[in-house]
């Protein structure tokens, strides 16, 4: 899993400094979106937070779209640092529901994810490769998780791990869109937990 | 369920003519998007197909966004004419998978749906009310369908019809996004069928 240390490891000083600066900007963007929402959060607010001009901000990324993609990549990095995909299957799924709960508390990043993800269904969009790779990686990992659940006797006979992985990612993505359309009228993490547990022979472990 | 006849019923001639003209435009838009995709399909191509100027086209709807929303509303009308929500639960779910298969053959409308649906998570977007109402209506109907499935003994003990409805809509929506990201690398109707059947005690009836 990619961590900040991997990205800078072995590089010389100025490069490392640039990487750190980029991470500061992305973390500031995540904070701004978390507090005021993606649509309320302007680049200006992000720039102010790190003491730069908007132009300086864009200089680091080339375009607003690229800054936004990198913001989501950074969110994944932070999330994945807390996720242990090598844990037993039931524990990984429990952690995923925890991630969904954390995301709900920073709703602006969900808005950003939903909008950018839809725009990136255009193969020419600058975020297209990010979403394709992210989806493939998540499906691979979740397929391994459901394989493990099968070995532990948690799956009904004939259940296909790859199909369960696809269904889990789809449920999560779809719930986010519905949750925004319906004005957050249901508990998203609970709905994800229900969607996952409905395919298992036993309930997941409870929250931490 | 709303049908073309409901919309024009009882109105006088010129109004009825306008309604018919709007439907012609929307059907032309659906055809253009089906054949060349949403991003490849220009308003110009739609206008050409109905023998109008682009300005004339927009005159009927006020803006491109409104034309696009009405195109999706028209697709729902056409779809719902083939769907019988009062049929036995297993049959309704089978019909839903058929609709997904039909949509896949007109992929441009899926692209349009995914993009507009994400943009409409902004409560100020002109399509926000359409997607909220559509989602609420679909959830109500599917909850009734799963209620019926429960009565027929198709659901595991303790399964909640409203939660199953939410999961079904989420799975469908999410699969569409993944399907576009992954370059149509899996069979969407099969994946939807698997997602639905995984929650039932028996397999759905086969295709027609």
Using a beta-carbon cutoff below 8 angstroms, give the protein chain pair with the largest interface and the number of residues from each chain: A-B, 41 and 42 residues
- Proportion of residues in extended strands of chain A: under 5%
Largest sheet of chain A: none
Low-confidence stretches of chain A: 1-9
Mean of all residue-level pLDDT scores of chain A: 89
Q: Which secondary-structure class do the elements of chain A indicate?
A: mainly alpha
Order of H and E elements of chain A:
HHHHHHHHHH
Roughly how many Å apart are the termini of chain A? 23 Å
* Radius of gyration of chain A, whole Å: 18 Å
* Gross morphology of chain A: elongated
Number of domains of chain A: 2
Number of strands of chain A: 0
CATH fold-level label of the largest domain in chain A: Tetracycline Repressor, domain 2
CATH class of the largest domain in chain A: Mainly Alpha
> What is the subunit arrangement here?
homodimer
Pfam families (chains A, B): TetR_N (PF00440)
DNA-binding region (chains A, B): 42-61
Domain HTH tetR-type (chains A, B): 19-79
GO molecular function, one term (chains A, B): DNA binding
Report on this structure.
With 208 residues, chain A is mainly alpha-helical. Chain A folds into two domains: 1-63, Orthogonal Bundle (Arc Repressor Mutant, subunit A); 82-208, Tetracycline Repressor, domain 2, CATH 1.10.357. Helices cover 71% and strands 0% of the residues of chain A. The first copy, chain A, has ten helices and no strands. Chain A has helices spanning 4-8, 13-36, 43-49, 54-61, 64-81, 89-105, 107-119, 128-151, 161-181, 188-197. In chain A, helix 2 (13-36) crosses helix 7 (107-119), helix 5 (64-81) crosses helix 7 (107-119) and helix 6 (89-105) packs antiparallel against helix 8. Chain A binds chain B through residues 39, 111, 114-115, 117-123, 128, 131-132, 135-136, 159-160, 163-164, 166-167, 169-175, 177-178, 180-183, 186, 191, 194-195, 198-199, and chain B through 39, 111, 114-115, 117-123, 128, 131-132, 135-136, 156, 159-160, 163-164, 166-167, 169-175, 177-178, 180-183, 186, 191, 194-195, 198-199. Chains A, B: This is TetR/AcrR family transcriptional regulator. Chains A, B: InterPro entries: Homeodomain-like_sf, HTH_TetR, Tet_transcr_reg_TetR-rel_C_sf. Chains A, B: Residues 42-61 bind DNA. Chains A, B: It comes from Phycicoccus avicenniae.
């Amino acid at each position: 899993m990619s961590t900040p240390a991997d990205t800078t490891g072995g590089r010389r000083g100025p490069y490392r400094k640039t990487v750190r600066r980029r991470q500061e900007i992305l973390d500031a963007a995540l904070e701004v979106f978390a507090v005021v929402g993606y649509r309320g959060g302007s680049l200006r607010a992000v720039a102010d937070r790190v003491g730069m001009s908007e132009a300086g901000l864009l200089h680091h990324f080339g375009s607003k779209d690229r800054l936004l993609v990198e913001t989501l990549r950074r969110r994944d990095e932070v999330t994945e640092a807390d996720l242990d995909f090598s844990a037993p299957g039931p524990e990984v799924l429990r952690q995923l529901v925890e991630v969904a709960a954390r995301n709900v508390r920073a709703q602006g990043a969900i808005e950003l994810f939903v909008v950018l993800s839809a725009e990136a269904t255009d193969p020419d969009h600058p975020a297209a490769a990010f979403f394709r790779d992210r989806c493939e990686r998540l499906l691979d990992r979740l397929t391994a998780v459901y394989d493990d659940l099968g070995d532990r006797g948690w799956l009904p006979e004939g259940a296909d791990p790859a199909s369960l992985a696809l269904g889990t990612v789809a449920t999560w993505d779809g719930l986010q869109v519905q949750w925004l359309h319906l004005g957050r009228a249901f508990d998203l993490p609970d709905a994800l937990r229900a969607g996952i547990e409905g395919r298992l022979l036993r309930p997941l472990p409870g929250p931490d």
